């Protein structure tokens, strides 16, 4: 393995300079990365300017770390009651497989993603490869916005669970999941990565009050 690493480093020295094998591995994983938790929110709570704005947020974060060659989509659903066509998060993100910035596979396909996936605090990394604060950290940031049911589809009904289809930083509410799979109870909802509970509102303060920071999941759709 070390010999292979030396050969790879030697063949890429003109590109990587003095970075060494560790730098090569990091760059390789960023190039192959197809899943991350956004390292920051929109700055306006759950208002991303709609799905297109949320997708653009994912794309910009990925581009900043050298992974912009992929088409990035936010794992968010919308509901027709909010004035936009219903869209299901699971249908927006391609077919997989998906892996994080360090090369760990989090799911091989849509069925595994919404079944027995590998999303947890250690694997749900940012685009930079960093951990995201969980329920045992201060501040707690484990609420990840999704607006979705556990199977990745939109939540039907008149009650707002998408912060007005990701355009509100005030009134409304959004469904969130726990990236660390830990909640206040030992039940399926508390352990759900994508459908744990609704937020208390759509602004930054409201999101923080239930353990969130306006973060979203980003997936490479190609």
Name its key features:
single chain; 222 residues; alpha+beta; Mannose-Binding Protein A, Chain A; 6-stranded mixed β-sheet; two-stranded antiparallel sheet; 7 helices; globular; disordered N terminus
Q: What name is given to the CATH topology?
A: Mannose-Binding Protein A, Chain A
Q: Helix and strand succession?
A: HHHEHEEEHEHEEHE
Number of domains: 1
CATH class: Alpha Beta
- What is the beta-strand fraction? 5-15%
Please name the CATH architecture: Roll
The biggest sheet amounts to: 6 strands, mixed
Average pLDDT, rounded to a whole number, is: 88
Structural shape? globular
Q: Which stretches are low in confidence, meaning pLDDT under 50 for 5 or more residues running?
A: 1-22
Class of secondary structure makeup: alpha+beta
Radius of gyration: 18 Å
Distance between the termini: 30 Å
